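Predict the assembly for these two chains.
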Amino acid sequence: MKDPLVIFTPSGKRGNFPVGTPILTAARQLGVDLDSVCGGRGICSKCQITPAYGEFSKHGVTVRDGALSEWNSVEERYKSKRGLTEGRRLGCQATVQGDVVIDVPPESQVHKQVVRKRAEAREIVMDPATRLYYVEVEEPDMHAPSGDLERLVKALSEQWGLVHVEGDLRTLQMLQPALRKGAWKVTCAVYHGDGLGPARIVQVWPGYYEGTIYGLAVDLGSTTIAGHLCDLQTGAVLASSGLMNPQIRFGEDLMSRVSYSMMNPGGHKEMTRVVRDALNALVSQIAAEARIEPALILEAVFVANPVMHHLLLGIDAVELGQAPFALATSGALTLWARELDLDMHPDARIYILPCIAGHVGADAAAVALSEAPNLSDDLVLIVDVGTNAEILLGNRDKVLACSSPTGPAFEGAQISSGQRAAPGAIERVEIDPESKEPRFRVIGCEIWSDEPGFTEAIGAQGITGICGSGIIEAIAEMRMAGLVDGGGLIGSAAQTGTTRMVEDGRTHSYLLHDGSAKGGPRILVTQGDVRAIQLAKSALYAGARLLMDQLGVDAVDRVVLAGAFGAHISPKHAMVLGMIPDCPVEKVTSAGNAAGTGARIALLNSAARREIEGTVGRIQKVETAVEPRFQEHFVAANHIPHKTAPFDLLRAAVPLPEPSFNTGGEDGGRRRRRRG
Amino acid sequence: MKDPLVIFTPSGKRGNFPVGTPILTAARQLGVDLDSVCGGRGICSKCQITPAYGEFSKHGVTVRDGALSEWNSVEERYKSKRGLTEGRRLGCQATVQGDVVIDVPPESQVHKQVVRKRAEAREIVMDPATRLYYVEVEEPDMHAPSGDLERLVKALSEQWGLVHVEGDLRTLQMLQPALRKGAWKVTCAVYHGDGLGPARIVQVWPGYYEGTIYGLAVDLGSTTIAGHLCDLQTGAVLASSGLMNPQIRFGEDLMSRVSYSMMNPGGHKEMTRVVRDALNALVSQIAAEARIEPALILEAVFVANPVMHHLLLGIDAVELGQAPFALATSGALTLWARELDLDMHPDARIYILPCIAGHVGADAAAVALSEAPNLSDDLVLIVDVGTNAEILLGNRDKVLACSSPTGPAFEGAQISSGQRAAPGAIERVEIDPESKEPRFRVIGCEIWSDEPGFTEAIGAQGITGICGSGIIEAIAEMRMAGLVDGGGLIGSAAQTGTTRMVEDGRTHSYLLHDGSAKGGPRILVTQGDVRAIQLAKSALYAGARLLMDQLGVDAVDRVVLAGAFGAHISPKHAMVLGMIPDCPVEKVTSAGNAAGTGARIALLNSAARREIEGTVGRIQKVETAVEPRFQEHFVAANHIPHKTAPFDLLRAAVPLPEPSFNTGGEDGGRRRRRRG
């Protein structure tokens, strides 16, 4: 008689196995992805499966009662002690008795897909570099002496097929008590490295370790540091936390930090200390939030721009402040936590993504990992908006990258009523094209300013200023309402027919909100604000345009706005301002903090590390700082949306009146002064 | 016409090369061992060679004037600036012009043999793991951005054929200033690892580094710590230094240190700190002696017994105090200096030899490396005499190892007038078989006590006691002079006919020296001293005998006495005492501090590390602590020289009178008491 047929779903893998074969064994032989930490001893319950009964015409099989063995004592004990979902069995205990269909639920798969909040560019499939293994170790024999470590390594090889495993010094220090406390049974966390070097035992727990191991993905930005604490087995994000980069006190932007280092001998060491202290504050904050021991964080991934990358590593970033912007290293790095003085597990492995170029860092590499332009069929432009914008353009044939110095205007700096994106900041703006009256929304309040209950809703917090996304919308709305002309000049009350236009010397401002009656601020969009945004958006556009030149294209198929700030930009308004090239508005999407997502992917999927290392090597770099055409593109992009590019798709979608307020006012006046 | 013939001596390698080929190039192509750090740029002068002219019938070649090119400007400049021995040329500058014989002097060979002070078991051939490489690195190009490290690695690959080289974090921190200061020319110290992992850049100097790099070989003993500072390029020992192991305050012998750790929670951490502090004192002392920066020590090798091995590593040694004496690890270890808090180059690689068993440590492995029993044609017994003796027995077919707890008597402890081997200690003893009068020598004085000028020569230092080698000689001489019988009883004045026998209760002592007239000590050999030495020597003999049983032999071909103490033992006296099995006295040699020599071999020759790792795996371990026959052998060996073993070879060489002093005295008395 033929051996019973075992069919696994969802993989569809099938095979015949002798009666009595445990389901876990069958799964392993077929290469079915079924998890196990205890190696089939009925302890970990990671191999839970659901047998399906009845007729399956699709599979050509009928599963009868009794297709699996009766519950044995191990299974019974497990169920009574810890509970087991109805219909579930332990794959290592239940054995094949007849033809059977076995469903492997997602949580029993090693390479499970991580559940994510939004439709994102790519799925994260679990493939962590650090994994848990339960082993039973031979006891020492004085007649055939060998080290406890050597016997543990042998057990990992024999019971798990792990070859070339080594122990760190700390492993040796903890090993002997753990083995004896666990009566020669221990759970090891093993870091698998890059496949070239040996795997290494990071931690040893007596007996079966029931706890969780954690990983931390960190986006180390110039202004903010954001971290996500993940479960290294399920991939779940357990806590997220952020704090300001305390290096701000050495300079708001990166170049002023480089200058600090140039002017102050040893200054880079101080900045390194400060950023590592901040990372430790983040670790402690996020561990407290998740109520875990920081020592259980066994891996971390860092992404950062080149200057932060170097300062984190204790490398003077002075070379990044001058051509040819040489990186100390462009490659990916794997370090020990203690090499960076980080307060997590001292042997936690820190993976730092590769840098693309002197101005395009590991953060941009993380964006490339998350958004995968190299896998895109259509031509995608990815813009990570920040003080320094990173720009990627490409498809599966070729990917180009550059950075562009947009300055801090998009983050609310250099704006008259500008502020960081925080409660009280105006973040959304609409201006009625007829009445020229504005309405807006404020961070921390869901109600628009012209809706009932708004005043009560904002309450004591009040309206304090305007943040980056708010100023972009305000100026774009002013342009659409005919209050700002293509050259960026704000019209007067007479020219626009609204008393919201306030005279300010030779220029005019638009009064967005007047809180002065209640002691609050008057929030105006000034001519200076428009000029600051024009400079920033011109730099962004010029960078993107330079890459398009390099690729020989005049249009892109889609645009992705990345970065914490990019997530809040309205595509339509960005397009009206001419921040990005013309493109169907529905093809402009936001990727949120793509750099952070990239860090998380690299944390949870070690193959992704090898992937991005390869991708970065193939990305073609363009250095904007020394490219003469960048300057040309920058000047032409000063116009709103653009002096020469037609922006036909945009014009078809939104009204773009073309008044001209240049009557010898601001710009004319300047010209006259120059002449005189 | 045929290309000129180039013959290298002493290798005899030969080949034809086109006119104009640099001698260094010809050497490399033929695989001739010719050193170079600068890669043929005429900077380092490591490739110096001596052309030989005239007729060489042996080689069938005539070398004419003009067989090498004229001196070029590089060679001239080098010679005028730094000098060049008459007849020498720079191999990278001188080119082939006709048939030529080229001698490669020893100092121009990478794998040169280290000059050693005495005929030792094996030569040391240089093959250091850390080497210097001078490279010229491509300058950064912002249009093809890559890290400075990546271009350095490329240069090492292209200019030296090094593949898979990585940089440590510290390399990254020092790299950029070094490259710029050296105008893109740097010298790197590269650690080559075990051939499995990547090579790693440890240090980068701007330009050509003219200095030396150093290695430290350390024998970490229970009582003393000894270090040798070596030049990693020539192998020369530049300084040697030693200090007491400060752990002595936790216990004289190893087991009392293990007990300290058992009785005092955290005690092992204290012992680790203390021994690491002592190692740092040694480093600082030896660096001062050699007038070098400790940061230029780029490698160190440690050998130690298992307890010291574990305590150095920060592992609680408690398991080594009880059966089954499980080591935390038996394998060799490679660590960073900073992992052990050592004040040398922070990335210096520390290599620790493997341990053989729970009682037979890395020090015994080092003895095996130095004395190479596994390569011996005849059967050799190697005894490393100390508080705990390590014993190796074997030949190229098989090697066995055990340890034996001899106790501290051989080091002068537990001896009535015992003291450490230091100035003032009696170290050599002769007793006239007729007159029974002694003469002796004292450490620090070359004159025998019965020679003219002795009193003046010892001067104020005086005669303070008797050291280990002194007590061994004293008792053996007493045995040969008929003052001690085979059972170990000291005879009375009446029995022996000399007034030097002093009554002491029921037993007698032999007065070796009476300094009381000058206020100095009376130095006696007491019955207790003989008993203590009998216990120690029985343990030593029993261990050796156990290994002989295991191998099925009754005699060994030769005996090697190792250990700092072993170097001072007179083979004849050791044999008379029966410390070692019977053997022709001329076949008993001393290897000095073989463990220290083994450490030095592993430091200077990285292939030796792989060799001893393999050898240790094949050594068969015997655990004396639980072997019943050990006890039998121990009892039988109490007799001097032995109760049952004939010691015929010894008896043929020296007089061994057989008096019996047992007349109901000490031993008889004891027996009576038991009966009563």
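The first strand of chain B starts at residue 5 and ends at 9. Residues 527-551 of chain B form the longest helix (25 residues).
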